[in-house]
Amino acid sequence: MKRPRRVRWLWLLAALAAIVAVAFAACDGDDDGDGVVSGDRIQGGELTLATIEGDALDPHFSSFASDISLQRMIWRGLYTLDASNEPQPSMAASLPDISEDGKTYTITLRDGLQWSDGDDLLAEDFVMGILRTCNPDNAGEYQYVLTNIAGCDDHFGNDDGFDEALENLVGVQAIDDTTIEITIAEPQPTFTIILSLWMTFPAPVHLFPNSGDAWPDPGPSAPGQLAFNGPYILTAYTPGDSAVLEPNPNWAAPNGISPTLDKVTLRFIDDEAVSTNAYRTGEVDFTNVDLAQLSAIKSDFEPTGEYVRVLFPGTVGLQMQLTHPVLGDPDTGLDVRLALRRSIDEFTENEVCFDGGRVPTTSWIPEVSGGHPPDAFEDVIGFNPDAARAHLEAAGFPDGEGFPTLSILVRDSPSNICVAEFLQEGFRTILNIETTIEVVDGPTRSARFTAEDFELFPGGWIQDYPDPENWVLGLAETGGSLNNYNCSDPEIDALVEQARFNTNNEERLQQYKQINELIVTRVCGIGVGLHLANDYLIKPFTVGLAENARGLDAVIAGDWIAEAWGVSE
Known about the structure:
By secondary structure, the chain is α+β, with helices and mostly antiparallel strands. The protein contains 16 helices and 19 strands.
């Protein structure tokens, strides 16, 4: 059973290498190497893209890919990651000047930056973006990424909320209109990468002068209340329906690439079966594929080049709320969690619900991201009905007797509903326990996960930046801001503290591998099951989506560089 899985993973790695090689080769015509722009791209035109509606417009709060996909179309930070995942200047004029002790970053902005409304984009706006993420009243889901900024944790962790004195101690300041100084507590090899992420995007101080000022919720009036510094501006927003983007007249074009489209319409469609049908009928020019019909889609669209698959570091499984008295019981909870995980046949789930479009795994961190091979923990958490029943009996629930009815929370799409029904049937037939299924829309699912209002939640993680710490920090340590399943393990916490600022890179990477093993084998919030791939349908007249599709994508192909999108003749 292990050997076929290992062979398949090696094949997929080879495919990924081929995709990356093609992407790099296609970049030869782009002076900066930051993204592919075809000579066929014309001035003008429109695109309509199917996507998932997010939960918030606020980059200093958000954590879901659907939010982030839109946010980096309309805002950009000091740096961006290129096709090699290396940080490059964006709103900054150059890479940071770092002090000898590695603790002070001095960053100079590009000349002449402006917000979309014409106001000057200044150093204070980038300072405000970081302060908003550190502000406990804003409760930024990604604050944990900024924990090394001096004073950020002290402010964020203040139980009484915003405190001006504590905010003044956060280690970020504007030296002048174009110079930012950031002080970190310990040298951090990944800190410049972090300055490319959305939680450090600038905030328009001229509109929101205080770090606790609330940004508008997604709605019709939201576009007029905001200013933007990305390639596009948000001109319309209709909840549950669509958002409209138009080119930003004040886009700085740091990579030499500017939008050519007149308009981009984002259609909010939770159900990939619906969006796939909309693609077939010409209503949308792009969609994520309904994996329940992947074979038919590949048959219809692979010959035309419209079907695109991009492998990327992402892992999903069954997330479990450890505040639940049964799932998180300090004495018997591990046996319960192992019983649930070992009753899930991830190979069959992949074929039934995703038409083979994912990769069965027993590792949280993918091997390419510094984790373990997919079959590494097969003997501990892999599908095994006898072991699953034995674990449930050891927890005090022989043959499911006395086990409570748990709820599975999923987004309203065929593949997600299929997963829930597959899990439900497996739990019933193997463990003799019952579950219910709650089907909700995308924003509700996101909000409930953030509020920790769930029991069982099929979901997972997509890598934000290329380092194994991104799979651990905030997600696995006690009290982490994205640890919505409430994993709490003293051994994991100790290793996180050792690895977080360890400048011995070989040792640091080994510590993250140890953490990966503990997360998996102790089912610390997630029963790992599948690695991911993005499967897209993209109309042949589009430019810049398929060419720039890679692991940096959040939801839409090439959404890390939306300014490269366009249409051909």
